[in-house]
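Sample 1 of the test manifest.
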Amino acid sequence: MEVSDIIRPENQVFCKTKLMTNTALSYCPGCGHGTAHNLTMEVIDEMGISEDVIGVAPVGCSVLAYDFMNIDMTQAAHGRAPAVATAISRLWPEKYVFTYQGDGDLAAIGTAETIHACNRGENIVIIFVNNGIYGMTGGQMAPTTLAGMKSSTSPYGRDIETMGSPLKITELIANLPGVYYVTRHAVHTHKHARKAKKAIQKAFENTRLGKGLSFIEIVSNCNSGWKMGPNESNIWMEENMFPYFPLGDIKVDGILKK
Amino acid sequence: MSELKLMKGNEALAEAAIRAGVDGYFGYPITPQTEIIEYLMAERPELRTGMVVLQAESEIAAINMVYGAASTGKKAMTSSSSPGISLKLEGISYLAGAELPAVIVNVVRGGPGLGTIQPSQADYFQSVKGGGHGDYKLYVLAPASVQEMADFVEDAFDIAFKYRAPVLILSDGLIGQMMEKVVLKPQKPRWTNEELIEKSGDWAVTGKKGRERNIITSLDLQSEKMEARVRRLMKKYEQMEKEDLRFEKINCDDAEYLIVAYGSSARISQKAVELGRAKGIKVGLLRPITLFPYPKKALFELADQVKGILSVELNAGQMVEDVRLSVEFKVPVEHFGRTGGIIHTPEEILEALEQKIIKNGSIRHHKTRESSIL
């Protein structure tokens, strides 16, 4: 029996969703972006909405998300994805519109667009990948860089006195009346990824029901930017990121969790 | 059906936008253009045509909303005034780079900085020389009346969709704020989604129903691809110069002297031409209606006929550079303009023509300049 006799469609028990293209990911090995992309595309595929979805790519590591996600996408200026998504959703209310943004994009340069799109309760999904660093430009301090954490622009560690505290924008957003669903997840283990996928599905269901804004934060690693191996970075993330950015639901069905 | 009304320039533009079947307007208040969003909000176009009107959190958000709307093939527009347009320039560069059709209106006020809320034409350079980053140009329409504020909305969208490129309507506080009679065109229906997909389905992001996915981006990390994109843009601009240049000649047939002016300055200069003619001065007016493309050839040809040219602008001297470039130093070219929100009178313009051009007509100092450059 040859290998080609075994690798046949009828023997396949699991495969990459067809909504991920065959383009090789530009992400570093060990990075969580690939999994976050995959989960998003799986949800869209399983919900059967791939022909009615419009995604908005940010500036940052995931600027090329449109190379990997096999759906209609538009690429926004740095931080402006929620404004871009607002207009798309307003003019095509029957479509599923989502943004996929990193922490620098969403919580620094795009803070105003993020807060106001959330406050207007736009009927969109925001997927926010928080790895506490600017990955694309080579590891500079982000709004979510932890206190004392080193980066190329905080080489002696983030000094709270002069650089401010890491921004918990997700908690901030959850307090806005227009926001319907806010949850924080991770994707570094199968267990976490399964939970994250359920959250993404709930978010797109909310769009279907016209419930307003759903916001999913994915706390992720950046092994390159953090100057660590993939496994080491995941352990560091659990020990350092999760205590400051605790996983779990923050607001469900418009009601803040106690 | 058509209607005759007495309206402010800003209001006429807003009403014309509804009647042109625009899908979305995204704006932010700034004097002297705020009547545009105020009029649209009061008119409830969502009930009249289904047009979406949204007050954004900033000019930056507004232009990016236009980018999002334009990505989907809808007719989208925004308006602002000078400081607000500066904020929009990143988004305008993205629109040009991503080859998206959209209309931007600048009701210009004086600058730099917060400047003044009074009329000005000091955004000429910003409008025609790029403004934002990168190799791009805007098709720029300069209305000189309330009627043109209304008419240019539809014209601008026609050009925007013909070329898949952003178009700028460069007005100013005078044209925006003044009231004149205006003939409003009958209501055009907005495109249905089916019509839109038929028209723009090969590029717009509308959900990939029955086709391969579409992507809107201005990013090309491969240099060859980026250069190809820039070349594609330059080709569009060449075509605009060939097919969509617009200008108006007034009293030019026998002119010995020429005034070049656009927008509100052209309106005032037209009176200066009348005053000059009454005094026996054979003066004509060339009014560029599009500032890009620019009537270079018409000016080059007129330079063989006239003894001197005065560029009249509400600024410290911007378009005068393009006039000089167009006539290639064949005749003296001087600038006259007021700044700070002061509007020149026809008498001042005529006096400037007499002092700067007619009196100095025999001194061909531009020839000297030419030789010093060579």
